[in-house]
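Kindly review these C-alpha cells for lecture notes.

. . .
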Amino acid sequence: MFHQQYPSILLENAVSEFAKLPGIGRKTALRLVLHLLKQDENDVDLFGNTIIRLKKEIKQCSICHNISDSDCCEICSDNRRDSQVICVVESIKDVMSIENTQQYKGLYHVLGGIISPMDGIGPTDLEIDSLVERINSTNVKEVILALSPTMEGDTTNFYIFRKIASFDIEITTIARGIAIGDELEYADEVTLGRSIINRVSFSKSTN
C-alpha cells in the first residue's frame, strides 16, 4: 500500500526506485520523477532505454576488468600506451580519475574492490589471481599499486606485494601526496597526477 501523500501507486513506485540510488533521498527522488513526467514521452523512452542498454550490453574488459563496449577496452587496445606498466586500482572510478590527470600512459588492472573483512570481502573476491597471471604471461616491467591510502587499501597493497614479489618487476606505489585515509576518487587532479609521477618503491614506502 502506498503512502497517502502520493496520489498514484505508479508515482510511489518510481520514487522508491530512484531513492535506491546512492545519495538520493525520497525528496530528491520525487523531484526527479516529477521532472521526468514533464518531459516529452520520446525523451523519457530514450532515458529508460539507455539505462536498460547500459545494464544489458556493457562489457568488462577481458584484460584489465575496466568497463567497455567491447571485449577489450580502448585503453588496453591502444598501442600508444606503455604495456609494460600496470597501474592497479580499486575501481572503474579510479581509472577515470587517473586518466583525467593526463599524467599516466600505461595500462590498468581493476581489482573490483579492496580487502575488507568487515564487509566480507577477501582476496578471492577480487581480481588478484588474474593480475598474477597477467604479470606471469606478459612482458610487464612495473606494477604501480594505486589504492587509496586507507587501512583496507594498505592491507590490499601488502597482500598483492607478497603475491607478486617473486617476479622480476619493479613494484611501486603512489606517493603520499594524498592524505592518509582519503579516497583516490576525491583527490584533485594535480595532487593525484603528482602522486603518480612521484611514485616510490613499495618496499621503501613500508619502512
Notes: The mean pLDDT is 89. The beta strands are 59-60, 67-68, 82-89, 106-110, 142-145, 170-173, 200-201. The two ends are 60 Å apart (CA to CA). The longest strand covers residues 82-89.
